[in-house]
Design brief:
Elements lengths: L13 E6 L10 H17 L3 E7 L3 E7 L3 H22 L6 H13 L15 E4 L3 H17 L14 H4 L13
Antiparallel strand pairs: 1-3, 1-4, 2-3
Helix pairs in contact: 1-2
Pfam family, one: Y1_Tnp
Protein name: Transposase
InterPro entries: RAYT_transposase, Transposase_17, Transposase_17_sf
Length: 180
């Protein structure tokens, strides 16, 4: 088992990437982004998650965050969102990709003994401790520039599902603790 991206420092601040299996573009629908955002809010209120920065892209999400038991919080977040996002896809009458997405999630789960019928997230999360100001600034810039580099917006704060709005002095979707 790889130890490359493990949470070793319980007091550390981490850059986390959660990726949808096969890089499927699920977060192109507002309903799914809202479900993921609501789940992050729940983890903030109930599980001690502190979010310093975040961004949801079409097929992955980035967080700069900390929590007393970050590995457990991330595990629970992935488990919960996986189940409810798949349910939302199944129930969405406007989801034109429903059969393809469910087939992909089912195929991914068939390759793993630890998943049920469907697997939404790639198993290994990417967690990197941000143990220097330079690394913190680099990852913060990368996270907020993601939608700009993808060509979705011209300025980072234009992306609704990102903390770039907070860093630009506007009210964002989630509560964040700004990195000074």
């Amino acid at each position: 088992m790889s130890t490359k991206y493990k949470v070793y420092n319980p007091e550390g601040i981490y850059f986390v990437t959660l990726t949808v299996v096969e890089w499927a573009d699920v977060f192109t629908r507002r309903d799914y982004c809202e479900l993921f955002s609501d789940s992050l809010s729940y983890c903030q209120l109930e599980k001690g998650l502190t979010v310093y920065a975040w961004c949801i892209m079409t097929n992955h999400a980035h967080l700069i965050c900390s929590a007393p038991k970050l590995s457990v919080v991330l595990r629970d977040l992935k488990k919960y969102t996986s189940r409810f996002l798949i349910d939302a896809i199944k129930a969405n009458p406007r989801e034109s990709r429903k059969n393809w997405l469910l087939w992909m999630f089912k195929s991914a789960a068939a390759k793993s003994v630890s998943h049920g019928e469907y697997q939404f997230w790639q198993p290994a999360g990417h967690q990197v401790e941000l143990n220097s100001n330079e690394l913190m600034e680099q990852r913060l810039e990368y996270l907020h520039q993601n939608p700009v580099k993808a060509g979705f917006v011209e300025e980072p704060e234009q992306w609704y599902y990102s903390s770039a709005r907070d860093y630009a002095g506007k009210k964002g979707r989630l509560e964040v603790v700004l990195i000074e």
